[in-house]
Amino acid sequence: MLRLEGVSHSYDDRAVLRDVTLDLAEHRIGVIGANGSGKSTLARTLNGLVVPDEGRVTLGEWDTRRHARHIRRRVGFVFSDAANQIIMPTVAEDVEIGLRALKLGREETARRVEEALVRYGLDGHRDHPGHLLSGGQKQLLALASVLVTEPEVLVCDEPTTLLDLRNTRMVHRTLDGLEQQVVLFTHDLDLLDDFDRVLVMDAGRVVFDGVPGDAVPHYTKLMDER
Ligand SMILES: Nc1ncnc2c1ncn2[C@@H]1O[C@H](COP(=O)(O)OP(=O)(O)OP(=O)(O)O)[C@@H](O)[C@H]1O
Ligand SMILES: [Mg+2]
């Protein structure tokens, strides 16, 4: 289980996370909050992309400060701008690259790549350059490239920004069907209806923690008061 204990982080003199303590045990966890409230920074602490100035983030016995490599293999991360995650000449190679570190051997690697391409509807594009895919397909490729490594936890930072309704639904269905734990940072409140738990962030703190039916109205009220 991911656990944050007294996590605080500043950029220059500006506090962006303030003493956040959380046990992230639920299968589906959403995080919402205003622009600049610290969501992406919090997301990045979960797999060691950001190591907090104070406090610690752990996954079982692993600590992001000391075991970033172990944690990154277990906690997959999908960015809001999927294009940044597309780096290889072809779609198939983009899916394969994440597997290299796992050294699974040629056959197992090829099997997993094929399975991921089919599952995410990308098998017809295997030899195309990823940057020619549509926005929704890029998002699915980014998801496929992370999920092919079979992480224990998937952290998604606004995976549906830029997407039309059809592709938003496609990403939603994909996330919905995953066995893995998902921690979803989003402005798309509709995605959270069936989530187990939703955290509301404001000015670097978690100001509400509950079921979506209570968290979303709390956030809406917070925004109405501004
Ligand atoms: N690498 C960085 N260097 C300096 N300041 C940063 C950096 N990353 C984030 N910040 C600042 O930290 C604050 C929180 O940013 P963060 O990206 O975590 O917010 P957010 O809640 O994800 O916002 P949004 O909803 O707009 O994505 C912002 O004021 C931002 O300018
Ligand atoms: Mg953000």
Your description of this structure?
The chain has 226 residues and is an alpha/beta fold. The chain is built from seven helices and ten strands. The strands form two sheets. A six-stranded mixed beta sheet has the order 6-7-8-3-9-10, with helices on both faces. It has a four-stranded antiparallel beta sheet with strand order 2-1-4-5, with helices on one face. α6 links the parallel β7 and β8. α5 packs parallel to α6 (165-176). The protein binds adenosine-5'-triphosphate and magnesium ion. Adenosine-5'-triphosphate (ATP) binds next to α1.
Task: Give me some keywords for this one.
Rossmann fold, single chain, 4-stranded antiparallel β-sheet, binds adenosine-5'-triphosphate, 7 helices, binds magnesium ion, 226 residues, 6-stranded mixed β-sheet, alpha/beta
How would you summarize what this structure contains?
One of its GO terms (molecular function) is ATP binding. The protein is α/β, with parallel strands linked by helices.
According to CATH, the fold-level topology is Rossmann fold
> Uncertain regions: pLDDT < 50 for 5+ in a row?
none
CATH homologous superfamily heading = P-loop containing nucleotide triphosphate hydrolases
**% residues in beta strands:** 25-35%
CATH class: Alpha Beta
Return the CATH architecture: 3-Layer(aba) Sandwich
Radius of gyration: 18 Å
Query: Strand-and-helix sequence, N→C?
Result: EEEHEEHEHHHEHEEEH
Major sheet description: 6 strands, mixed
Form type: globular
The domain tally reads 1
What's the number of extended β-strand segments?
Answer: 10
Q: Write out the strand line-up for the largest beta sheet, numbering strands in chain order.
A: 6-7-8-3-9-10
The overall pLDDT, averaged over residues, is 92
- The helicity comes to 25-40%
Helix count, per DSSP? 7
> Which hetero ligands occur in this complex?
adenosine-5'-triphosphate, magnesium ion
Question: Cα distance, first to last residue?
Answer: 35 Å
**In terms of structural class, how would the helical and strand content be classed?**
alpha/beta
Family: Belongs to the ABC transporter superfamily.
Protein name: Biotin transport system ATP-binding protein
Enzyme class: hydrolase
EC number: 3.6.3.-
